[in-house]
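Need residues for this backbone.
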């Protein structure tokens, strides 16, 4: 895939939080490969099991990456008579869990977030 690069101008950007293998990118890029693994264990009473804190103990972390099936070829043509991409204002609370906020053009993008939450509480009223 051929990418035609150009300048990018952004009048105003507000991002409160960027976390967990996420990216804020201004301008054009070739490729992004974002990966995030997280294991969140929360208990009212500690219960330390030997393999509980290893990613290998949970199937979700060993599953293969999902891939998209090939789709029909599509003819696509884009013309940018102006050499610059102009964006007004972007305001977001957060970019998290292997995601990207990009103002510009890009090539291939892969993003994987795998998160296992374990929550055990003695009181059923706590959620």
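Answer:
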């Amino acid at each position: 895939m051929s990418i035609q690069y150009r300048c990018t101008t952004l009048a105003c950007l507000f991002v409160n939080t960027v976390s967990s293998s996420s990216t804020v990118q201004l301008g054009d890029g070739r490729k992004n490969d974002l990966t995030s693994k997280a294991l969140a264990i929360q208990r009212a009473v500690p219960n330390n099991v030997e393999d509980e804190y290893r990613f290998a103990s949970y199937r979700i972390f060993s599953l293969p990456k999902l891939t998209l099936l090939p789709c029909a070829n599509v003819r696509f043509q884009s013309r940018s008579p102006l050499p610059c991409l102009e964006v007004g204002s972007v305001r977001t609370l957060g970019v998290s869990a292997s995601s990207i906020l990009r103002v510009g053009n890009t090539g291939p993008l892969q993003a994987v977030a795998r998160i296992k939450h374990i929550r055990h509480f003695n009181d059923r009223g706590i959620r």
